[in-house]
Amino acid sequence: MAQLNLFGEGPQPLLDDASGRIVLIPDLLGADIAAHWFEYLHDRIAWKAGTRLMYEREVEVPRLRAHFRAEDAALPTVLHDALNIVKASVGAPFDSIGLNLYRNQHDSVAPHNDRLADLVRGYPIALLSLGATRRMTIRAKQPPRRVLQLDLAPGTLLVMSWETQLHYHHGIPKQRTPIGPRISLAFRVRGQGKQKR
What we know:
By secondary structure, the protein is of the alpha+beta class. The protein has one domain (2-188): Jelly Rolls (Sandwich), CATH 2.60.120. The chain is 16% helix and 38% strand. The strands form 3 sheets. It has a 7-stranded antiparallel beta sheet with strand order 2-3-12-9-14-7-6.
């Protein structure tokens, strides 16, 4: 299991082979901007709770969510700015922004891969972290069971190629120790007619 030192400067390729490409950009945003964006989004987004079917019963999704399309007239200025910065950094025409609010150490997202049927083939997924540092686990689906443990600090951008969704799961596990709130902005290319599910 690899736990990576994220104190280097500039983009850090974590994976680049036939199974896909994962790149970490530790300081895409300065601390002041990251803190301002977190506070703005935490306080002003209309966060929604949700449920999902698990083991034949409905359970509460352990985080709050929101979603915007890039062309939404109601797109907040902070998300417009974030979209432009991430587009310029990654070089992809992102048109969808999913927001997740992890309120404390009890909130999480189970290991999963993005639904490729909802995405335009070949374009990456970019995750921008704001707020408290949380650990993400990226685990190969098949042997050898490569595992990456990433502590995603505020202002960090993680970019995963489309292909990685075929070969890896990623998730944010619950923690045992108290932790403050974190917001993740997920930038995707969904194309026309593909809505958030």
